[in-house]
Amino acid sequence: MMWKQPFSEFLLLLLLSTLIFPSITPHSIAQNLNSGYEIRDGIKWHPTERLTWIGDSRNPQIARDGVGNYHIVWQDKRDGNWEIYYLKVNLDGFKLLNDTRITKYDGDDINPSMVSTQNTVFIVWQRLVNSHWAIYFSRISYTDENIMIEVPPKPIVQGDYNCTDPKITIDYYGNLHLVWQDDRNGNWDIMYELIDKNGNPKGSIKDVSSDKSDSIRPNIVVDRQENSHIFWIDVKSVPGYSLLYRKLSLDGKFLTGVKKISIVSPQSTLDAFYYNNSLYLTFSCSREDLAYEIIYTQLNSVGDTVIDDKNLTPLDSKDSILPSLNVRDDAMFVVWNDIPQGTVRFSSFNLNGGRRGEIFNISEEKAFNPAMDTGERSIGIVWEKDINGRRYLYFRSGEFPNLQVKKLSIKEIGENLTLSATFQSTFPLTVEYCVCSEDNEMIYSAIFIEMEKRISLNFTLSPGTHNITVYLDPKNYIVEYSEGDNFKSQSIFVKSFSFQIEVSNFTIEAGERKNVSFYIINEGNWEDNYSVSITYNTSFFSLNYSKIVENVTPGERREIIMEIEAFSCILSSSYEFFINVTSLQTHRFVERKISGYVLPFSNLTIGFTPRIEIQPGKWGYINISLYNNGNSRETYFLSFREDKPWPFQGGGENITLNPGDAWEYKLKIYVPQNTPAYEKNMVNITIHSSTITRYANIVLVVKPVYAVSAEILSIVKKEESYRITASIKNTGNIATLFNLNLSGEISSFTMMSSSHLFLQPQENASVVFNVYLPPTLMAGTYPLYINILHDNITLQSLQVKLSVEERHFIKINIEKIQEGTSIKFGIEIKNEGNAPDVVKIQVGTINLNATWLISYQGKNYTNETAIYLKPNETAYLVAILTTPLKEGTHSVLMHFTSASGLNRTMEEKFFVGIKKKSFLDQMLSFILGNILYIGIAAGAVGGILIYKFKLKK
Asked: Contact, 76 vs 83, CB < 8 A?
């Protein structure tokens, strides 16, 4: 057992070093654990895990869900082109869902961006379509065992221009916010759009950058008010590259102009985070042609700089690039890439940019493009590793601890106290703890908690009630997944005798006799008796009071009444009375002074605003100021009267003011909900004392409120048309002209009975909308938005979803192309419906086993195939007989079926071999072949006959 003493000495030295060198925090020491875990700066880092083994994995993005797992999307070249892939891992890097290919496209899909919720992942990326980059969208839902692509890849921004580098985020209420860079205007601009969970637009596209220069590399965060904060890099010849910012509301209104945040470099990238009404921003930048470093800037909620350009990384020759940022519990986590060696590095900082922990390597060399996200309990980091010229994904997670003060007990013997406490940690940590009495720190030290640790301390406290609290990690050096159990408190009581006197000044007139009181307050914990003596000017006053006060219980506030007579000869002035109270138990005494004022006159000045505008349906305030410009203490009485019976709070107040004192009073008044605009209410206020009276008359004017409520009363469908009836009500307090407009894909097919409504307050009106959906319209559901506006401001928008039902009609035409030695049939199939369909074709020979080759779009199929037809699409196929048949006439049988219910069989006859000509056919062929000679012979015979019968006569 000889090892105990050296270990205890080591622990003592460690605690002493903490007290002597407070800048060296114990939790910064790395501790190796079993199974490859290590602890750095209070975070338990799991071993690195390799995620991909084939292809070429690039541009990983990561997001956590609500149960501690991480979702990763990336681009991978496994099939000759770039595709988007997805997987899910737990904290140990174990794949809960294997690599899942999201896209199946002949071209390239790159640059994914993602957000996740409890069980849904939203992904956007860019796809090369017809030589232009477009933005595509997909939605994935998942369980612990499987995923489902709920919204297959679909274009959400596409045209004859390029859309690249999309970034997506989600706000607290589930709205999806999208930004990208776009060259539709001839240069790169930053565009913004609000979309729903299906990738459909919820508003118009906004040009955020509004600049003729190139704007690139956008980033977006949203706040709890659903406002978007957008950052990007602007390129100008002078001054060069700049980091810019702009703020948008949920309805697409610009809340700020474009603001310049900092000067950056050509290869600068950025990441932003919203936390506690502030914006946190990291970006890579090279200053004065030196290596790239990671720079930190903090902004307020409108983009004004709070902390300007603070360097987070060491000043060395390595380029530090691609920062990824997360903020929680007043700690900032940053991961970045050091190149050219390719190392992923990590550190934590406070919100002022000061480092809380060490900078250390998350990865080995040849690691690039890190991405990070944090959950409630952990940090997840994914990156690329270069192996023989290809990139593969690697993952590492860090787990936050949970510290707990499990037990606390305090024993009290007089003023001596013994405290016992038990601490717990989810993994071994050296942490600090603090013992406080109320808010006063008594003990501060460090302790190593392997899993559970018990301490015992002795100390003394002054008499009275104390609240003793034991804190773990009192300075919040360690980020935990639960901070609520880091302390325990216990109240104790030490007996004592203590008292206090409470007095107040008074006013009196010459010759007046009045009662003035003061209070003895027993602040101890035991009953006490007191003696009372008062010193005063006996030339001007006469006093009568109790000399002994008995049995004042703990906490009691005993009133002592003094009968004071001011002699009639007293002058107007201030006079002092000294009250001395002594405890008969401890003989401790307390003395207080009371000032008495003799008032020959009083005066009062009041201030108020004579006209106040107030909003219906809300409480408003009337502010009144009183100023006692007399020479004595005075009590005033306030009363209120109004012309209209509006509810109010206040009135009947008594206010006492010393000379020169001012006082502010608020009368709270409520305007009924439907009060008309500009209606007036007169409020009369009376302020009086025993000697003076003052009045204040205030006019309350009701503000106009423009509001509307609307609902759909009915939707009547008749064939391809709809009749929609909507009810619109003016819920404001003023007659208003409302404008109506329509939006949505089918708004051009809609006519409304009225586009303007003039409504009195609370008046209803019905508007009819006739919608004709052309038969050529694709089957599906189309939203129609009915927008109600006043003065170009949308007050309400109604959404109606109208459906176009599927109509299926397949037209088939068969043409015999060739027969005899070679048999060919042409088949024309046209989809004349409004929905896509799949048609299956089967070709056979009646009563014969023959093989037919079906040729379609350069590919051949045997006896049967199936084709996919879009609406109005026509397919051309050729059926060729490949089996030799006996000479003669045969029948081909073609059977057509489709997913929509088509079931048709068509029969065509054909001849195999060389046909033999009949006698008539042979005669006809002879005649046609010798028609010239036959004509000459016929002419000769005719001439002979004419000569014989006519000329010879």
From this structure: yes
